[in-house]
What we know:
The complex is a heterodimer. Chain A is an all-alpha fold. Chain A has seven helices and no strands. Chain A is extended. Chain B has a six-stranded parallel β-sheet, sandwiched between helices. In chain B, α3 (40-48) packs antiparallel against α4 (58-75) and α7 packs parallel to α8. Chain B folds into two domains: 2-115 and 300-337, no CATH class; 123-296, Rossmann fold (3-Layer(aba) Sandwich). Chain B contains 15 helices and six strands. The chains are: A mainly alpha, B alpha/beta. Chains A and B meet through α1, α2, α4 and α7 of A and α5, α7, α8, β3 and α9 of B.
Amino acid sequence: MKKELPLLITAIFGSFMVIDYFVPHPAVSAVGETLQQWAIIVISFSYVLGVANIARINGEKISKRSRDWPFALPLLAGLAFMLGVGIFGGIGQGTLFNDFYIYAYTPMSGTMFSLLAFFIASAAFRSFRVRTVEAALLAAAAIIVMLGRVPVGAEIWDKIPAISDWINNVPQMAAKRAILIGAALGAISTGLKVILGLERNYLGGE
Amino acid sequence: MRSTKSILVLAGFLLLLACGHVLTARAEDPGPASAAGASGPAAASVSASPSASDSSGSAAVLSGVLVSADSAGAEATPAEGAVRWFDPKRANIAIVVAVFFMLVLVFIRQAGKGASFFIRKIAGLDAIEEAIGRATEMGKPVLYVPGIDDVNNIQTIYSMVILGNVAKLVARYETPLIVPVCRAFVVPLAEETVKQGYLDAGHPEAYNPNNIRYLSDEQFAFTAGVDGIMLRERPAANLYLGSFFAESLVLAETGFSTGAIQIAGTANIHQLPFFVVACDYTLIGEEFFAATAYLSKEAKLVGTLKGSDWMKILLIAALVIGAVLETFGVTAFTRWLIVQ
């Protein structure tokens, strides 16, 4: 019963959301919207579980003086601080919560994102090493596309931007769409397997 | 004999859908104004379409259906009192999805009757056990990142399914499994999945709930957290299976710098080049969704892969037919396939 009931709920609501896409009747849309609101409410409750998970794992780490336990201190302090200022001071513009988010979190997040530039350079360096015929083709295509995107490309040879566009719009697009079609079919068949109850590992224990 | 029967069932189903579509379109036809073709977008569509003058063949039938559907969609709105139970503009998607569902169900049924299907080797999936074995030999943990999306993304749900299989293998080898989670809602799912994996492997005592770690809902806070785990705990195998975005290369390059064997899989095609470059194995698009069928070899699951393969054959046929028809100026088929 612990598995049958969730499977039944999945089948009913999964099928309903598929039907909702094809049926424009207001009665069906209203139920669909209500179900989506239920999902938002359920998801918002899950943050309690998330906070409990962080508190338990890092609290244990500190109390047992486990490896790297000092890192858990600022984490828990930051969590408690932001929770406190958010609950008691609000989260709108001009509040302490918002200031910390904009002036502390956003720059840190931007820093992490900017690392991507360096990682792209290191990854490109490795992948463009010409060791095989395929790697040579990849490197040649990449050089043409890069040159086609900058003014110097057209200065070298005025056909380079056109060749670059052709690589992007024909072979690249064809391969991308083939992968996309395969992935979409995989996603639909997985949805069907979940609705039919063939895939049930995600439901956990018996 | 069995395949002939399946084709007949499929053909019957298609015919039924086509009839239903035509009837729906006719039932919602607002009347003589559009039937006479005197005014409105339907009339413009008829005169502009080269296939409208071609009165023979399926292209003309499809064109007729399309035009009826357009006129119904344009003129019969719920505001006028005609509450519809089917959106004719989405008939093309409904038919494709129905055919696909039929194919999958037919092959699941065949698998249930004992038919065996061939499944090609997928190096990335074979490498999962090898990666876990390597981590065991080195005495280091395995890191499993189930993407950064919520459970409303099918990739996250499927990642949980693969996580169950990985947990079983890890439990058998008695190797620690670390699962950092980006969405609070995924935490209980991951906990239950891993716990069940350890239970199935006969090692429930080895399950450590502290290894299912919720880090943050924020994309780059989560990325920083996972990078920290990689650099501090040095997992020997990193598995990135799920829905990833801009953080994919940051994670994969950090993992590469630690010397871990890395296996990635996602259906987010824009992230695939990053994973291909930085990981040892990458499951590309549909290979990701084939994981449980491949790992479990369960006949019914393999049957669903066969259904996908047949659907791809049908889509390729549709592409070829569409290209040929477009070449000869018949646009009805391609216009019918356009998603509105």
